Amino acid sequence: MKLLVCVCKTPDTTAKITFTDNNTTFDANGITFIMNPTDEWYALVRAIELKEQHGGSVTVINVGLNDSDQIIRKALAIGADDAVRINKAPTDAYDVAAQIAEYAKDKGFDIVFTGKETIDYNGFNVGAMLSELLDLPFVSLANKLDVNDGKATISRDIEGGIENLSVATPLVVSAQKGMAEQRIPNMRGIMAARRKPLQVVEPAAIEPLTTITNYELPPERSDIKYVDAENPAELIRLLHEEAKVI
Amino acid sequence: MSILVFIDHNEGKVKKASLEAVVYGAAMNAGDVVGIALGEIADDALATLGAYGASKVIVDKAAHFNHFDSRAYAKAIAAAAEQTGADVVIFAHDSSGKSLAGRVSVRLKAGLVSGATQLPNTDGSFTIRKSAFSGKAFADYTINTDKKVISVNPNSFPAKEGEGSAAVEAFDSGVGADAVSITVDSVSRMTDTVPLPEAELVVSAGRGLKGPENWGMIEELAIELGATTACSRPVSDDGWRPHHEHVGQTGITVSPNLYIAIGISGAIQHLAGVSSSKVIVVINNDPEAPFFKAADYGIVGDAFQVVPKLIDAVKTFKAS
Ligand SMILES: Cc1cc2nc3c(=O)[nH]c(=O)nc-3n(C[C@H](O)[C@H](O)[C@H](O)COP(=O)(O)OP(=O)(O)OC[C@H]3O[C@@H](n4cnc5c(N)ncnc54)[C@H](O)[C@@H]3O)c2cc1C
Ligand SMILES: Nc1ncnc2c1ncn2[C@@H]1O[C@H](COP(=O)(O)O)[C@@H](O)[C@H]1O
Fold it and tell me: Whose atoms come closest to the Cα of B306: which ligand?
């Protein structure tokens, strides 16, 4: 099976978020970047498990500049076979999807994995856009996936429940919790990753459909009001009369 | 201008998040709001969308739309957008919207803002605010194309019911059964509670509860309040609670009217997923727990003492 996994970098989950240039640019100063959690923990690991089970190869792809190489090497250390980096700081989700589609369209991948969302731009967009550009079925929010004889059986989250479905490959899947367990790269993996191929591809000319023009931090919460632990009835009164939420 | 809203439905009823999407479309005040529904559903159920601001609903009831297939649905919705001349297509940012908005955006070559929390600002450019960095910030996106696709964050626009009834018209999308490639084998839904992403009231608990055997009082409090239960990540990782209750930066992002956090420390990754809640209540026995800094109301105390009293207080409140 030929598998492609889309991975990107995001600020570390503990990062304090600030902006510069009059609130138009994310301030990356002093920020540690990690591989986007759903890409790493679920999409990548499940792709590697499928390869271990059925044979084939796992390629990781990233749209980014060489500051993505660190997370790409980590993906190789976890067990991907090779990597492609499309050499461009992406402008929006459409740009990412279009660059990846341009690369993937004639390569015959059986499954293209994305994470469900990035924890910085929280789009949930790239997988859906990519599937349309490739004219493939798309299953979002998958929490389980098995493949047998070219048929994928998938379980996905829907509001308040689960949908079980089947679909022939090729397809695009966005992965989330449940699909696999996080793998920590070992020393052998890290050494091997240094010798695995990372191909840098020049980007296609794509016009972004959207532009971020301003960022803002949420307003601080006004001061907390404490209620005596012996008197929770007072809390209920406040929630009803003051906050008006019950 | 004309606005098309995708209407998702389940067991004969329009989903709440789709009602909110109609309310959003109507609040844009920018032209007729038309709904597009797919699959079998009674005309009466669709006509009620008039009370939320839709003037008309078009529906392709072909049986092959009875199960969700993002590719076939996207083709049909894009066909509806062309036929109605829609300039803006709106989805709920829910499990179907998350699969469709990107596809329709590509089909229509229309810029997409997903998870909008505010109405567009249309003086000069077309700019929409959404939450970014998992609730740690807002980002304003300008859409550069003539056509636009927006998905609306659940619970950002209350589905207030007004007066009126929408005209319901049959629509032939031209998308046949051959466009469907996904077979839905089964669907299982919890029917007794509001799904977490849609919930207006959430009762959430963390490792302070010590073990899964202690969740009885959390569930009871939730039932009394009509709330949905949630949990912190370690609680779901350890299998005390199901995965779909995990909220936070790497779980579900929620924005209910009320979030009650019991025995949760308030780590930055947890706060990221809940900080857009309108009111936050924290119950924790450690007065230094970081969650208190992000809360509107707090009780410093032992959950095992406080929660039973709180349940009694809710019962008394409901009886009064
Ligand atoms: C990459 C990454 C991603 C993460 N993503 C998430 C995420 O999405 N969501 C998430 O929740 N976490 C996430 N975490 C974990 C997060 O950092 C915290 O470890 C976690 O939120 C702590 O869970 P907790 O508050 O339930 O447990 P603890 O930190 O152990 O806190 C328990 C709290 O209960 C209180 N307590 C103890 N006994 C009582 C009692 N009897 N009565 C009342 N209070 C009591 C304690 O004072 C304490 O504040 C992530 C971590 C990493 C590294
Ligand atoms: N720059 C990128 N390069 C490669 N894949 C990406 C990039 N950005 C996003 N993705 C993939 O698309 C998924 C969804 O991203 P988003 O639509 O931004 O929430 C992520 O989980 C990744 O798998």
Answer: 1
Q: Tell me, yes or no, whether B302 and B169 share the same domain.
A: no
Q: Is residue B187 part of a domain?
A: no
Distance CA A38, CA A73 (A): 17
**Do B20 and B165 reside in the same domain of the chain?**
yes
Q: What is the pLDDT of residues B48-74, one digit of tens each?
A: 999 999 999 999 999 999 999 999 999
Instruction: Provide the domain count of chain B.
Output: 2
Residue B309 lies in a domain: yes
Per-chain mean pLDDT for chain A: 97
Same domain membership, residue B124 and residue B92: yes
Give the mean pLDDT of chain B: 96
Rg (CA), chain B: 21
Q: Is B185 close to A164, i.e. CB distance below 8 A?
A: yes
* pLDDT tens column, A141-181: 999 999 999 999 999 999 989 999 999 999 999 999 999 99
Instruction: Assign domain A2-216 to a CATH class.
Output: alpha beta
**CB hemisphere CA count around B162 (13 angstroms):** 14
B225 in the same domain as B158: no
What CATH number did the domain enclosing B55 receive? Answer: 3.40.50.620
Cite the beta strand spans of B93-207 per DSSP E: 111-116, 127-132, 137-143, 148-152, 167-170, 182-189, 201-205
Which domain covers residue B108, as residue numbers? 3-179
Query: Which of A126-140, B68-82, B188-202, B286-300 is the least confident region?
Result: B188-202
Q: Could you report the per-residue pLDDT of A85-99, keeping only the tens digit for each?
A: 999 999 999 999 999
Residues B209, B251 share a domain: yes
Domain-wise residue ranges, chain A: 2-216
Please tell me the distance from the alpha carbon of residue A120 to that of residue A108, in angstroms, as a whole number.
Answer: 30
Q: How many residues does chain B have?
A: 320
Q: Are B107 and A132 in contact (CB under 8 A)?
A: yes
Chain A contact for B20, CB < 8 A? no
User: DSSP state, A245?
Assistant: -
Do residue B167 and residue B200 come from a single domain?
no
CA of A59, nearest ligand number: 2
pLDDT of amino acid A161: 92
Show which of residues 27-66 on chain B sit within 8 Å of chain A, judged by CB atoms.
none
pTM above 0.95, yes or no: yes
Report the separation in Å between the CA atom of A118 and the middle of ligand 1, taken as the mean of its atom positions: 22
Q: How far apart, in whole angstroms, are the C-alpha atoms of residue B34 and residue B261?
A: 40
Q: Which residues of B touch A158 (CB under 8 A)?
A: 95-96, 187, 189
Note whether ipTM > 0.90 here: yes
In this structure, the answer to whether residues B134 and B282 fall within a common structural domain is no
Report yes or no: B100 at the A interface, CB cutoff 8 Å: yes
- Residues B313, A233: C-beta atoms closer than 8 Å: yes
Residues B57 and B133 in one domain: yes
Q: Do B137 and A140 touch (CB under 8 A)?
A: no
Q: What is the pLDDT of residue B288?
A: 98
State which of A4, A36, A86 you would mutate to test the pocket of ligand 2, scoring each by most atoms of that ligand within 8 A of its C-beta. A36
